[in-house]
């Protein structure tokens, strides 16, 4: 029994931010019913390759992108543009605790599926809308894309190599960070709203915006600007206030060296066979190293290139100098810590394939998240859900299919 196994979530979201929230709730035990367009489904089902393959090597046409955000859910195909489809969603909402949606502002109102309409059939419903720019403001009706939001929200102004350096310029994150963080903030908001409902019996509306989240997660960099009035700049893999505290290329890969004090710097250069650098007045203290960064870093970089990354990691760890490798994903999933924590899980898929997935990082002693089912095939649970929750019989289901409502 998961911590949220008493809850039902009606998931009308697609792509990543909304599905990420729904998947987190599902991992914690909630019954998540994913509403998808008949014949097409979530756009990410087709965002491949790569696609999940059967044991015979055939593509299932289930894209890895879709698989990453939709485990532990049930898929029901409903055309919400039809009156019958709208009625189905309202009936399911009446038996749900939470509704998640990420349609354009105002789009669901014309279908009678907005918060005000569903609150009439379920007064204590928790209704969470996820959009790019929120329900209000001059950009509210603009479509929101993670990449664009990373730019507008300032993230790319502080991410990437320094201007004037090789490869310098703005850089997005390697994953859709605004989407993912919006999904996590939405999860927190939903759980807070449920706690309030449990105390008061009152539902509520949640307005989540990617841009709001991207600005909020500027964290200390945002606070630096608000405090000083000076916009921070990109520093790549270097640290603005500590040297050497950055990535270095070894003979066969990259490592991170995070020297936090003068004693660690001395140990670092002693391991590298350059102890005289610690005695040089230009490098003896961190303020001097920062001042003479452009002289010191090339010397250290040449020193690091003389050995392989595993040799460096072993030597620096033994000396007590903070360090670590920059792993590719093959190395990540071979890492003994990642393996011991069970971050990779394999789940039987309805196609006959085995889906390799990432488990939730949440660890709980009494109600740990579980991977119960693989991401569903399109419409896999339509009949099951409509029969058990709404009491539809064979004739009703056949009639709905004839009218292309499901």
Automatic annotation (TrEMBL):
Gene3D superfamilies: Crotonobetainyl-coa:carnitine coa-transferase, domain 1, formyl-coa transferase, domain 3. It holds the Pfam family CoA_transf_3. InterPro entries: CoA-transferase_III_domain, CoA-Trfase_fam_III, CoA-Trfase_III_dom3_sf, CoA-Trfase_III_dom_1_sf. GO terms for molecular function: CoA-transferase activity. Keywords: Transferase. Signal peptide: none annotated. It comes from the Bacteria. This is CoA transferase. It comes from Trinickia fusca.
